[in-house]
Specification:
70% of the residues lie in helices and 5% in strands. By secondary structure, it is mainly alpha-helical.
């Protein structure tokens, strides 16, 4: 009887440790998904610090933007639980982000001279 309760208690905690991947596959992480995401975020932060301390080059800004975008996606997906929430919340987030990205691209395309 106690084994069933223990198995049931372990299965309640399994969603935190199991990641469902596209295509119906899933993996279980021993430390839990939040610990894994935390480690990835820490490694990305160290990567950003290293890239920022290097001499300026052509790829410095794109690498930093890509790392920050990846960190934002991880935080929104896992810590804000956007991967398990209703899809309307994704639209509520993605529409303003899309408008902001289009506005930023437009402003970057305008030459920096006065009319």
């Amino acid at each position: 009887m106690d084994e069933n309760k223990q198995t049931h208690a372990q299965s309640e905690h399994a969603p935190n440790d199991t990641v469902h991947l596209p295509g119906g596959r899933s993996i279980t992480l021993p430390g839990g998904i939040y610990t894994f995401v935390f480690v990835i975020l820490a490694l990305l932060t160290v990567f950003e610090i290293i890239v920022a301390e290097l001499p300026d080059g052509f790829f410095t800004l794109p690498l930093l933007l890509l790392a920050s975008l990846l960190k934002a996606v991880l935080v929104v997906t896992f810590y804000m639980h956007l991967n398990t929430d209703n899809r309307i919340f994704r639209l509520v987030l993605l529409i303003p982000v899309g408008v902001m990205l289009l506005s930023a691209m437009w402003l970057l395309a305008v030459p920096p001279v006065a009319w």
